[in-house]
Amino acid sequence: MRKTSIPLETIIELRQRLDRWPKRSSERRTLILETAELYGVSPETVYRSLRHHSLPRSVRRTDYGQTRVMPKQELLRYCEVIAALKVRTSNNQGRHLSTVQAIRLLEEHGINTDNGHLTAPPGLLKKTTVNRYLKQWGYDKEKLSRQPPAVRFEAEYSNQCWHFDLSSSDLKRLKNSVELEPGRGKPLLMLYSVVDDRSGVSYQEYHEVYGEDTGAALKFLFNAMSAKSTADFPFQGIPSMLYMDNGPIGRSRVFQKVMNYLGIEVRTHVPKGRDGRRVTARAKGKVERPFRTVKEMHETLYHLHEPETITEANTRLMQFLLYYNKQSHRRESHSRIEDWIENLTQDGIRQMCSWDRFCTFAREPEKRKVGLDARITVEGVAYEVEPDLAGEKVILWWGLFDSELYVEHEEHRYGPYAPIGKPIPINSYRSFKKTNTQKRADRIEQIANQLFLPASSQKHLAKELRVAIAQGRLIAISGVVGSGKSTFLQKLMADLIKSKEVVVSRSLAVESDKVRLVTLITALFYDLSPDKVEKVPSNSEKRERLLLELIKKARSPVALFVDDAHGLHSTTLVSLKKLIELVRSNGERLSVILAGHPKLKNDLRRPTLEEIGGRTQAFALEGIRGHQSEYINWLLTQATQEKVQPTDILESETIEYLSQRLSTPLQIEQYLTLAMNEAYQVGLKPITTDFMETVLAIGLDDLEPNLIRHGYNVKSIARLLNVKPSEVRSFLHNQLPTEKTTDMREQILKIGIPL
Length: 755
What we know:
Elements: H1 8-18, H2 26-39, H3 43-54, H4 72-88, H5 99-108, E1 111-113, E2 116-118, H6 127-136, H7 141-144, E3 162-168, E4 188-196, E5 202-209, H8 214-225, E6 241-244, H9 248-251, H10 253-262, E7 265-268, H11 285-297, H12 310-325, H13 336-342, H14 355-361, E8 365-369, E9 375-378, E10 381-384, E11 393-398, E12 405-409, E13 412-417, H15 436-449, H16 456-471, E14 474-478, H17 485-499, E15 503-506, H18 517-528, H19 540-554, E16 558-562, H20 570-585, E17 590-596, H21 598-604, H22 610-613, E18 616-620, H23 628-639, H24 646-649, H25 652-661, H26 665-682, H27 689-695, H28 703-709, H29 714-721, H30 725-732, H31 738-750
Parallel strand pairs: 3-6, 6-7, 14-17, 14-18, 15-16, 16-17
Antiparallel strand pairs: 1-2, 3-4, 4-5, 8-11, 9-10, 11-12, 12-13
């Protein structure tokens, strides 16, 4: 009876015998045939056995790649939250919470997620394990931030799609330009452009503006769609679609209205940074390329012969465009303008209307309700109308090109009214079909947006502060106006006094900008001396020696609390650091706790304060940020009877609106009180969003109030920039020339002031 399998030993011996003969020799074939006949198998089976037993064997476990510390779904949840923490804490430089710190946060405090509170058992999650599965499951930074695939498209016929954009000219400003608005300096020379998607034909114009001006954009598009004065450039007609970015022009309601009347579909590409992965330039390539060509081939000649007027600049630009559009198409054998002509539809060109008719599109009636302050806002511009119209429903007549407002009410016409404010653009975006990578990244972002530290985080902050205070440190606690710093400090001081862990001292000086080291030492003398202090020594040597004796007699670490410390002079901060070191060198411990606006934390990071910035332990008090809705509901519940619901006082939409506009308990309490007082007078219940809009102060989110919340005023900014306060005021009120405004903005951002 023949054997049907070949033993491993035989295979090994056969392999060794075959190796003695060269490849393709007859002896090797003979050995194969003999072995096959011996074991009753085919020669192919022998060859197969040789190949199988020559393959390398895995040295890995049979469960390689499978989680052993916990079930896969549980580990997946932890990895999602850790990835979300990294996304939530990322800054513009790409820095974020490390895996080690994320694990520590989950173990010690836990995180409130969309599926409840999540806490990790201590010691179960390891850095290497988490990082391995983050990469294996596609949650690492590289994959989450990867650019989505670009989709190339091309219109089937001419005027089906135009790309529209604008870019500042390399010339910046014309020699003979005049101020369009007094006090703002010479306007910027802006290059407006449209590109036909099918043919690549480009039409461009120069306009002098102070920014992204909707009126200038509409004038340019009118000229682009109208017949040109030269027969060599037949490009004209109303396009079916306009593809552009979602900047102030695209978000303008007037712009959208005019495009709607013309029958143009406006599509906007996803803005840069919306999902943290997309780059705008990939969506704007067809219109950006002509900009580059014009600047490289045309505007470089301005160094030899600079245009003096806007008319001369546009005349010379048109000559270049005639040359540019006669160049070869990107794919076809003919020119761009020839391709545009050949690919027009059978219906031909949709002719542009007259200028007068075009202007009427920007002046159309609109029903609106006037605020209780007799003010109304159109396109972000505020107008103040007749007091008798407050709270009334009216019809507005507003024109883009004259900036005048007329109001009709009960067959009476009022106006014209001039603007009293500046435009505030409204955001409007569109969505695209997402890849699996994008969906995964969006899932992480969704989790990230729903993460917040539990109420115990303040307890943890207080715990860390108590540890730092006991060590004798310079400590900075920062938070915006109204975030609850004073309340937090009072509770912390009360707890420290009750525990008798440290001796608490507090500076009562109210003019922080005039506080010097001697003022703070005086506070220590008053709080540490067992007897009433009659006079603090004026001699610094004697004063410091007596202070050391008082701290030594206290027999406990000493903590000095200084509120509103964002106003302290840099020399005072340096002196405090030296005082702490002096006390430490004598074997004692003194901590100084500085509480102030975010300006304090930012000042400590300045290069001029490098010697103390690195030695200061900084803490940020976020207050109720991210939990405004919960705070509003809680506040209304506490302030009303049991049977009264928050929605009986404020509509749910109004609560959501307030949570978006207001950020601190102080703001919420202030405007809620004001709204309820005014609502009572007019008999309104519950309070609507429209009513709340009239209550909130105009300019609440403007630059100047925001800077004040962070601890900056005109004087402090002027001192940092080494400029006159009047120049800073002009910047805050948008009254500087465009170039000067840009320069000052860059300087302010460079020193870390939020804008």
